[in-house]
Amino acid sequence: MRIATWNVNSVNQRVDSLVAWLTARAPDVVCLQEIKCQEAGFPREPLEALGYNIAILGQKTFNGVAILSKFPLEDIATGLPGDDEDVQSRFISATVSAGSGTVKVVCLYLPNGNPTNTEKYPYKLKWMDRLIRYTHEHLKAEEPLVLAGDYNIIPTAADVHNPELWLTDALFLPRTRAKFRELANLGMTDALRAISDDDGLYTFWDYQAGAWQKNNGIRIDHLMLSPQAADRLSAAGIDKHVRGWEKPSDHVPVWIDLDF
């Protein structure tokens, strides 16, 4: 089962690129972030024509997440538990069954957290605390679990081209990285790092200051795997070339293969 994540930064602006990438990479399950539309405005037809079932949690203009799957989507749930007043569309989950295997897939879009001297950074940390609690509870099931999405977290200095530029950014602050380690310490595996320790593995290049041309990138899009999912991991990769396409998202797809 090939599972991928991609912050498309407006699905309606990238639909042609999305279709082209889906056709070439042929993922079985895809988690999309920042779709930036409500459900009625989501471009279902070209994606359903490729054989995908679709689950959406949309939001006008901002945020929004979706799961595409060539297998039936079951037990669909929206909204990260723990804060009934949080109305931002950042979390959707579903169970996917294929052959002899079943996996719970969570598509998430963590808050950015900048500027750090506003309420946005405490919201980011609280969101992470809720995700950690959610993960802790679901690990008790001892089943394959994949948390895929744009985490807005640079885990280590190896995941950023120039760490000095990010020292005061919410994505790289010590408290932010500590939350990511806390998630990992529950028993979750960073899929890409389980496959490769190479430097220069980035998933995001800003539109400004020639970041793409200079390869001034960061790795903030992750697939975190429960032990039962990590045991099935056979491959992982970043489709960096997509950033060079016409009218690209500032993120690129990340994918894994799980053997079922």
Describe the structure.
The protein is of the alpha+beta class and 260 residues long. The chain has a single domain, classed as 4-Layer Sandwich (Deoxyribonuclease I, Chain A). 22% of the residues lie in helices and 26% in strands. It is built from six helices and twelve strands. The strands form two sheets. Strands 3-4-2-1-12-11 form a six-stranded mixed β-sheet. Strands 5-6-7-8-10-9 form a six-stranded mixed β-sheet. Helix 1 links the parallel strand 1 and strand 2 (29-33). The chain is globular and about 45 Å long. The relative contact order is 0.17.
Q: Secondary-structure element order, as H and E?
A: EHEHEEEEEHEHEHEHEE
Q: Superfamily at the CATH H level? A: Endonuclease/exonuclease/phosphatase
Strand content: 25-35%
Q: Give the mean pLDDT.
A: 97
Shape category: globular
Chain oligomer state: single chain
Which topology does CATH recognise?
Answer: Deoxyribonuclease I, Chain A
Q: Rg, please?
A: 17 Å
